[in-house]
Amino acid sequence: MTSKLIQTDRFSLSDDERAAIEHEMQHYEDPRAASIEALKIVQKARGWVPDGAAEAIGALLGIPASDVEGVATFYSQIFRQPVGRHIIRLCDSMVCYINGHEAIQQALHQELGIGLGGTSRDGRFTLLPVCCLGNCDKAPTLMIDDDTHSRLDTATVTQLLERYP
Amino acid sequence: MSCVSLSTANRVPRPADTHPLTWRLRDDGEPVWLDEYQRQNGYSAARHALSQLSPEEITQQVKDSGLKGRGGAGFPTGVKWGLMPKDESLDKRYLLCNADEMEPNTYKDRLLMEQLPHLLIEGMLISARALKAYRGYIFLRGEYVDCARHLNRAVEEAKAAGLLGRNILGSGFDFELFVHTGAGRYICGEETALISSLEGRRANPRSKPPFPAAVGVWGKPTCVNNVETLCNVPAIIGNGVAWYQALARPGSEDHGSKLMGFSGKVKQPGLWELPFGIPARELLEDYAGGMRAGSRLKAWQPGGAGTGFLLPEHLDAPMYAAAIAKVGTRMGTGLAMALDDSVNMVGLLRNMEEFFSRESCGFCTPCRDGLPWSVKLLRALELGQGQPGDIETLEQLCDFLGPGRTFCAHAPGAVEPLASALKYFRNEFEAGIVHPAHAEHNQPTALEV
């Protein structure tokens, strides 16, 4: 498993990624401020942030690669290892907890064979916990990619997965 | 397709003179774009402020209105604005909107941004004028993808209509506004952590003083206000201070209306714009429909994970800061949660402290090490494997992680619900302790693994 995580190929930003990051840099007083957006741009194109990206982004922004890596590993929505085609963000905050989010998590575990932080063997889903999704009047709730789904139960959540091939 | 945030606030009667935040909401939950917003008097307060009022006069009106921050801490907004430096040579000033809504049980800013993006933009425009800010950022949590889409479209509409950019409405005032999306982590909602994050750094809170008004983003004077706070500004300027002060129920020491909610084991969980001073009981019974059939109120929390638990006997407390403080906690965000007897407090607190522990930025020791310890103790108690002394250790942690002991308000917020649960429901924690005869050792569950 470890060998998969170490990318030996040389990393370089694509022209599109570079242009998008340079565009973002103009929105701030200081290029460093675009570091989080830059990581999100790379992640959007590749699904995750491969090794080497920190150095390339750091060079473009004029900051040390270690600072970019420090940012990449701090924020929970930046992925430093490969993830599935679809990201399930399961709200585990207190209102979802009292409305049965643990049962939803178990149903997902049964269906996909993964716990929190895991990726299904077919590479289709990665399951992550997320801070309160601000949908507490419709709990329990989760997001799959950019879609928010509300008032879930164990039956509807498994049906829901079929919409994400 | 209607917004995720379509809620009870879209369905109740909402006259403009009592519901300044929500009267423009559509019944179908679709966003209100520029044409519709302007037809409903939108941007008229901004026009008035930019053509008739000086920055100082705007600040004074907001100060006189008694508006307080709606993000949970409740600091007077006009006073915060007044902290900005008087030195005119400091001409690069920033207005940041804290739209990093992540407090468990908080779903109010999402509604405003998804459905009324122009209300926030108008609020920011007037506020920026008062603060003499040349640029603003809406710091939005990354998961609010619809808010990002709607805000970006609204910003483009406003720019095209001359409501943002250079020489706005011919006033000579320039203001540029950007939507900045985050990448996770609850701590970004702490205002100095938000500044660190906006600068592209790890979201560690900063020491205060210096306050952001003196040294903020990129070292410049900066004001950070919550979404709902800024959305109050147009109506204060448009309708005046006397009207605003008449909104709350008699006796309330806080002014205006507030997005309030009740979630959890209630019949009809929801969100409503209500006057400050409404009794919590009215919110629960008349708006949320009371408890679900067959369930009885065991405890409630007035405003988010960082506030303490209260009992049914506290339900007559009116919803405003000083009244909730009198019964022992803070009003927080004003979005309450109801628990019934099916909820075990030890399991619930374990869930809550897991959240606070995961979201600690790790900078200061009490928070970084104390919160995981509390989780370990609560897990042991939940499994009935607590050791004699574990409850006393939890109480000690409530003290060591309390106000004044840590770098920011994260850990004090984390232990407030824990301390109240230990106070009111101690027997549930005691039930998790193994009988002394069966204890493996007579020592509390230690931190080391």
UniProtKB/TrEMBL annotation, chain A:
<comment type="subunit">
    <text>Composed of 13 different subunits. Subunits NuoCD, E, F, and G constitute the peripheral sector of the complex.</text>
</comment>
<dbReference type="InterPro" id="IPR036249">
    <property type="entry name" value="Thioredoxin-like_sf"/>
</dbReference>
<dbReference type="InterPro" id="IPR042128">
    <property type="entry name" value="NuoE_dom"/>
</dbReference>
<keyword id="KW-0560">Oxidoreductase</keyword>
<feature type="binding site">
    <location>
        <position position="91"/>
    </location>
    <ligand>
        <name>[2Fe-2S] cluster</name>
    </ligand>
</feature>
<dbReference type="InterPro" id="IPR002023">
    <property type="entry name" value="NuoE-like"/>
</dbReference>
<dbReference type="GO" id="GO:0046872">
    <property type="term" value="F:metal ion binding"/>
</dbReference>
<dbReference type="InterPro" id="IPR041921">
    <property type="entry name" value="NuoE_N"/>
</dbReference>
<feature type="binding site">
    <location>
        <position position="132"/>
    </location>
    <ligand>
        <name>[2Fe-2S] cluster</name>
    </ligand>
</feature>
<keyword id="KW-0001">2Fe-2S</keyword>
<keyword id="KW-0479">Metal-binding</keyword>
<keyword id="KW-0408">Iron</keyword>
<keyword id="KW-0411">Iron-sulfur</keyword>
<dbReference type="GO" id="GO:0051537">
    <property type="term" value="F:2 iron, 2 sulfur cluster binding"/>
</dbReference>
<feature type="binding site">
    <location>
        <position position="136"/>
    </location>
    <ligand>
        <name>[2Fe-2S] cluster</name>
    </ligand>
</feature>
<protein>
    <recommendedName>
        <fullName>NADH-quinone oxidoreductase subunit E</fullName>
    </recommendedName>
</protein>
<dbReference type="GO" id="GO:0003954">
    <property type="term" value="F:NADH dehydrogenase activity"/>
</dbReference>
<dbReference type="Pfam" id="PF01257">
    <property type="entry name" value="2Fe-2S_thioredx"/>
</dbReference>
<feature type="binding site">
    <location>
        <position position="96"/>
    </location>
    <ligand>
        <name>[2Fe-2S] cluster</name>
    </ligand>
</feature>
<comment type="similarity">
    <text>Belongs to the complex I 24 kDa subunit family.</text>
</comment>
From TrEMBL, chain B:
<dbReference type="GO" id="GO:0051287">
    <property type="term" value="F:NAD binding"/>
</dbReference>
<keyword id="KW-0288">FMN</keyword>
<comment type="function">
    <text>NDH-1 shuttles electrons from NADH, via FMN and iron-sulfur (Fe-S) centers, to quinones in the respiratory chain.</text>
</comment>
<comment type="similarity">
    <text>Belongs to the complex I 51 kDa subunit family.</text>
</comment>
<dbReference type="InterPro" id="IPR019575">
    <property type="entry name" value="Nuop51_4Fe4S-bd"/>
</dbReference>
<dbReference type="GO" id="GO:0051539">
    <property type="term" value="F:4 iron, 4 sulfur cluster binding"/>
</dbReference>
<dbReference type="GO" id="GO:0008137">
    <property type="term" value="F:NADH dehydrogenase (ubiquinone) activity"/>
</dbReference>
<protein>
    <recommendedName>
        <fullName>NADH-quinone oxidoreductase subunit F</fullName>
        <ecNumber>7.1.1.-</ecNumber>
    </recommendedName>
</protein>
<feature type="domain" description="NADH-ubiquinone oxidoreductase 51kDa subunit iron-sulphur binding">
    <location>
        <begin position="346"/>
        <end position="391"/>
    </location>
</feature>
<dbReference type="Pfam" id="PF10589">
    <property type="entry name" value="NADH_4Fe-4S"/>
</dbReference>
<dbReference type="InterPro" id="IPR011538">
    <property type="entry name" value="Nuo51_FMN-bd"/>
</dbReference>
<keyword id="KW-0004">4Fe-4S</keyword>
<dbReference type="InterPro" id="IPR037225">
    <property type="entry name" value="Nuo51_FMN-bd_sf"/>
</dbReference>
<dbReference type="GO" id="GO:0046872">
    <property type="term" value="F:metal ion binding"/>
</dbReference>
<keyword id="KW-0479">Metal-binding</keyword>
<dbReference type="GO" id="GO:0010181">
    <property type="term" value="F:FMN binding"/>
</dbReference>
<keyword id="KW-0408">Iron</keyword>
<keyword id="KW-0520">NAD</keyword>
<keyword id="KW-0874">Quinone</keyword>
<dbReference type="InterPro" id="IPR011537">
    <property type="entry name" value="NADH-UbQ_OxRdtase_suF"/>
</dbReference>
<keyword id="KW-1278">Translocase</keyword>
<comment type="subunit">
    <text>Composed of 13 different subunits. Subunits NuoCD, E, F, and G constitute the peripheral sector of the complex.</text>
</comment>
